[in-house]
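Page 37, continued from 36.
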């Protein structure tokens, strides 16, 4: 096994035993990036010099006796998360060349833990999309089939992990942007409970649903990363005082399996339109979990059918507000040097030239929904339905330990296949937006293949119920070992 193919757990053990160094591990990841990223285009920036310096420091820390699961582990960071001294452009021309003056809290915590930042990963512009085709710098390609999308918006992060360019990656999840690409790329994608990990330093999309997320090779690895990035942050008032736990331990929580756990199957998530191969993979996963001792029961979430329309009223509304700051005055693309006799002309030219079509579409939709005469009819009503969705999911999770659904009704689609149909693209979030609106933790775990393309199952937990998701996901993963399969990049 090549060093870049190691999991966090495997690499950490080898580092602790002195069998490898962080510099060697980092060099292996950088070599892999050079080998395959010309085909996949997962990375927008590679910080080779800085990464090797961080790796050297990690080795020095270990030599002094310091320990840590992430000490010396290389990772990629989504391009909409601030990294001090390294470009953070959110895959948008409006921020091209922007150098972040500070680290996001999650990056700061990883740096303190000794993780090694390799570079920044591609995404849909400002995280607006489900395919990573909306990036201003070109699409990312799925390692399993270079003619297909990796999902989005954290497509670069998911593709990077799937192709072993890094050991893990950071993404962001607003309505499925970690879980869906993880499903399409055959890796683990975790969206934590809203408020468990700080949003400080994330370029805001939809402030009421944005969360930093983890993309990893195994469920246990995702837990190791979450145990570092979780916790209260004075810079983010939405983070809570909930006691942070080590989500990869205690070991009995992972090793005792799923016997006695009750898992709910929401009838509204098992609908017509799920592709046959996906349905068969999910059904096989359910049967395996039954063999392992889990109990299943059907539950109903009748308001979940409104999750997509609610999400696509609330999301554009918050986008129109959050993106107002990109006006060409303080930072980013500015047209002040062009013929712009009035301040409005500076705004119009800067935003018109800097934003891509999907960003403009969402700004216009949100501005309309928030406008006088329509606020009550759209935004306010959507928030009321959102409350119903949250209440239903919370009530269902009082009766079961977690919910299980498909991550997506189909595997990765071909590049360009849906790019001209915004409505079809918005429906990509059909199984993802409910947990986001409710602020619940959810995780996509590989559960098989459909015509050679990865399929993921989604586990949804109660508020701050990540430990249960790790327990179920880890037990299933060890029994089936889908994560052992690797894409052949040609």
């Amino acid at each position: 096994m090549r060093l870049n193919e190691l999991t966090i757990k495997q690499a950490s053990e080898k580092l602790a035993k002195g069998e490898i160094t962080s510099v060697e591990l980092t060099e292996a990841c950088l070599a892999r990036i050079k080998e395959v990223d010309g085909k996949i285009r997962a990375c927008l920036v590679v910080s080779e010099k800085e990464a090797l310096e961080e790796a050297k420091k990690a080795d020095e820390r270990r030599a002094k006796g310091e320990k840590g699961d992430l000490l010396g582990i290389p990772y990629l960071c989504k391009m909409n998360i601030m990294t001090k001294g390294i470009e953070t452009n959110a895959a948008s021309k409006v921020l091209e060349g922007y150098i972040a003056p500070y680290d996001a809290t999650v990056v700061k915590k990883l740096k303190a833990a000794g993780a090694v930042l390799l570079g920044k990963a591609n995404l849909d512009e400002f995280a607006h999309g489900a395919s990573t085709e909306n990036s201003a710098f070109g699409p990312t390609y799925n390692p399993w089939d270079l003619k297909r999308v990796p999902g989005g918006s954290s497509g670069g992060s998911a593709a990077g992990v799937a192709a072993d360019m890094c050991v893990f990656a950071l993404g962001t999840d607003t309505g499925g942007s970690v879980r869906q690409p993880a499903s399409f790329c055959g890796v683990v994608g975790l969206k934590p409970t809203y408020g468990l990990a700080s949003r400080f330093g994330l370029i805001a999309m939809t402030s009421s649903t944005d969360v930093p997320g983890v993309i990893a090779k195994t469920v246990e690895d995702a837990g190791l990363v979450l145990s570092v990035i979780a916790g209260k942050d004075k810079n983010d008032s939405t983070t809570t005082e909930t006691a942070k736990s080590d989500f990869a331990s205690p070991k009995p929580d992972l090793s005792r399996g799923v016997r006695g756990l009750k898992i709910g199957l929401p009838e509204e998530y098992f609908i017509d339109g799920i592709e046959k191969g996906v349905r068969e993979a999910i059904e096989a996963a359910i049967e395996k979990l039954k063999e392992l001792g889990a109990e299943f029961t059907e539950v109903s979430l009748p308001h979940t059918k409104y999750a997509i329309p609610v999400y696509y009223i609330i999301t554009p509304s918050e986008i129109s507000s959050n993106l107002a700051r990109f006006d060409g005055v303080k930072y980013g693309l500015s047209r002040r040097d062009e013929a712009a006799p009035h301040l409005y002309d500076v705004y119009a030219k800067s935003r018109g030239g800097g934003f891509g079509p999907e960003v403009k579409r969402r700004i216009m939709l949100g501005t309309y929904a928030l406008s006088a005469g329509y606020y009550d009819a759209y935004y306010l009503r959507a928030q009321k339905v959102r409350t119903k969705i949250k209440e239903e999911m919370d009530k269902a999770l009082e009766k079961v330990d977690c919910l299980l659904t498909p991550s997506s009704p189909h595997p990765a689609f071909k590049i360009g296949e849906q790019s001209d149909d915004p409505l079809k693209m918005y429906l990509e979030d059909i199984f993802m937006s409910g947990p986001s609106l409710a602020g619940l933790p959810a995780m996509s775990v590989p559960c098989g293949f459909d015509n050679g393309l990865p399929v993921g199952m989604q586990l949804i937990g109660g508020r701050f119920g990540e430990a249960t998701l790790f327990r179920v996901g880890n037990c299933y993963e060890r029994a089936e070992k889908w994560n052992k399969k690797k894409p052949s990049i040609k």
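The first strand starts at residue 43 and ends at 46. Flag for discussion at group meeting. Residues 265 and 298 are 5 Å apart (CA to CA).
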